[in-house]
Structures are given as structure tokens and as C-alpha cells.
Amino acid sequence: MQQSVDQRAPRIIAIANQKGGVGKTTTAVNLGAAFAEAGLSVLIIDLDPQGNASTALGISMEHRARSMTEVIMGECGLADAIRQTGVDGLRIAPATTDLSSMGLHLAQQRGRLRVVRNAIRTDDVRMGALADVILIDCPPSLNLLTLNALAAADSVLVPLQSEFFALEGLSQLLLTVRELRQASNPDLRIEGIVLTMIDPRNRLAREVEKDVRGTLGSLVCETTIPRSVRVSEAQSHGKPVLSYDRLSKATVAYQALARELLGRLRTSQPESTA
């Protein structure tokens, strides 16, 4: 059944966590595929200089002549950089390693926190011509690219690995969201916190999940993402796990996460904290 977020302009969701290895890019790619499977038009903006989301969706380097670097520099429009993936309804504006030098460029700009916002929030985007949902895959740090992504977004989704120090890094990100609300994006909200790489057999993982839910309440998504070798296999083939293995536990989990977030997008309930 085709879904809708019931709005003209696309919902822009930054997927961010300053800690690497938490499933950020994996979430962007597979959540995007699950949204597309639900009937939405989805655009992923790859803002990570590693370009892993682009690679995971099969976009080779020769097809990245126009990338987010050129969009940010004003050398082309967002629509010019977009590439079709192997998933119907899912497209991507790819990244290259040239993005790693964008911090200096952004630092020199007037209104440096709004450069990406001005580049991607075109008239076409506001009218919903490019996508129903835009997912921004952020770098694994709170650098100027990530801050720009948060300033451009309507909300932020935080993948959180279920490990001992999970809450320590999260507190800095939530503080940054509060500061950005005051500085440049007063409407920025927490879309949700999704626990990733869950191994239900691991007692520590269960304890961390209980601690996170007890601390952050309804901000934490009900859906959790299991640890799965099928996800890594899919990425090596340039595919989302939904295309690689329809029956895997990770596929089922990302489909469930998409349904849960679509419910949140429709109701747009304010978060209970942060």
C-alpha cells in the first residue's frame, strides 16, 4: 500500500551520530529503501566524505562527476547531482572524498551554518518535486558539514549502538540540537533514536537498551535493528539488504522502522525531551 507523509514539501531527516560505527550509513541506505518500498519518493543526500552510502547503493566513482561537493560550491544544482539507484523510488546525491575539504569552505562563508540549507532547499524541493522524504547521511563527527545538515533538516534520527558508552556520545549531540535551535533552526526536532546492531543474546545489550529507554522514553523507537552479516554482504554488492535478502531479519526490521517513522511523520508529535 502506498504511503504518504501528507505534505507538499519533503520531510528532511538528518541521520546523525558523531560516533562512527553505529550503523548511520546502513540506516540511511536501508531506511531509504524501505520508505521507497512503501511507495514514497526518497532522496538520500550523502554528506559523508567517505561516500559509503553512495557505494552501498552501487554508485561508482565515474558516476560522481557531479556530487554534493559541486552542489555546496554552487557549481551545480542539487537536481543535477542526483543519480538513480537500483531501487525504484530511491535516488541519491553522491559524495566524494572532496567533501573532506568543505569544512574550510564553509568556515569562510557568511551564514556558514546555512550553506547546505540554501543549496538543497530549492523551490523544487519546497514543492516536493524531488522527493517525499530526504535523508541526509552525515559524517561521523560534529563538524561543520554535520552542523549544516542539522540546520537544513526538519528533524534528526540518531542511530545508537547498544553498547556501554552509548549515552555518553548522545548527550553531546542532543546539546548540539538545542544550540542549533537557538542559532539557526528553531523547528529542528528529534525524529527518534534507533538502537542498532542489537544481539538479543547479549545481556549487556539488553541492559543498555533498558537504560536508554528509561532515560529517553518515547524518543527511542520501538523498532530495533539486529546485527546481521547480510547487511554487510548487501553493501558489498551495492544493494540495500531489502534487495539482497528479502527474508533477512534486518530487512524485516528496516521495514518495521519505516512504518514506525511514517506514523511519527504523520502525527509530528513533539519529543518529550531534548
Short description:
Helices cover 43% and strands 13% of the residues.
Helix content: 40-55%
When the domains are counted, the total is: 1
CATH architecture annotation name? 3-Layer(aba) Sandwich
Number of strands: 7
Residue stretches low in confidence (pLDDT < 50, at least 5 long) are 269-274
Describe the global form.
globular
CATH superfamily: P-loop containing nucleotide triphosphate hydrolases
The percent range for strand residues is: 5-15%
H-E string: EHEHHHEEHHHEHEHEHHHH
Using the coordinates above, name the CATH class: Alpha Beta
CATH topology label: Rossmann fold
Nearest-angstrom radius of gyration? Answer: 17 Å
- State the helix count: 13
Q: N- to C-terminal separation?
A: 34 Å
Question: Averaging pLDDT over every residue, what do you get?
Answer: 90
**What's the main sheet like?**
7 strands, mixed
Structure description:
By secondary structure, this protein is an alpha/beta fold. The protein has a single domain (11-264), classed as P-loop containing nucleotide triphosphate hydrolases (Rossmann fold), CATH 3.40.50.300. It is 43% helix and 13% strand. It has 13 helices and seven strands. Strands 3-4-2-5-1-6-7 form a seven-stranded mixed β-sheet, with helices on both faces. The longest helix has 19 residues, at 249-267. It is globular, with a radius of gyration of 17 Å. It starts with 10 loop residues before the first strand and ends in a 7-residue tail after the last helix.
What attributes does this structure have?
about 270 residues; alpha/beta; Rossmann fold; 7-stranded mixed beta sheet
